[in-house]
Design goal:
Layout (H helix, E strand, L loop, with lengths): L2 H6 L7 E4 L2 E4 L5 H21 L3 E4 L4 E4 L4 E3 L3 E4 L6 E2 L3 E2 L4 E5 L9 H10 L4 E6 L4 E6 L7 E5 L17 H5 L7
Parallel strand pairs: 4-8, 9-10
Antiparallel strand pairs: 1-2, 1-5, 3-6, 4-5, 6-9, 7-8, 10-11, 11-12
Amino acid sequence: MTVAEYFATPETVVPQELIYGVMRMAESPSTTHQEAVAALFLAVHGHLKRTGEGTVWLAPLDVVLDAERALVVQPDLLVTMPGGPAAVLDKIHGAPDLVIEVMSPNPRIGTVAERLGWFATYGVRECWLVHPVPHEIEVWQFAGGGAGVRRVFGPDERIASGVLPAFDQSPVEILGYPPGRV
């Protein structure tokens, strides 16, 4: 399937992506996943409103990483910055500055390794992998299409972001306290 054929399919809110010409679809995410996505959206949106730095976008929204190779993904959240590599049109064309993926016990579309590889290859500057149950956030920073630098932030640690350097929250502040903890 080409990108044009993919965009000609009926509009849907069902999670789907075009991976090198093959459409992949997934069941809807869990309530835990969606609660985490909502909390992250509010935190990042509030930060960007205060700083005026960029825009956060919520899935489902197609991101065309490679039109020629028919690679279109739908990250849970993404941030585009003024002057960044992404063109914001009816879809996002090119690499967002920041991608945020909330991890589920069973990956919904594809593997984490392949997604990180695409993000690094196609110019995403940073990716957050959010683990709601242990309240941890992995921050992957990429440069030049190569391997990334990974840092893990525990429940009470401030998240250090190269894309959002003034962001000053911890996973617990964003997601709430983990079960059994007050």
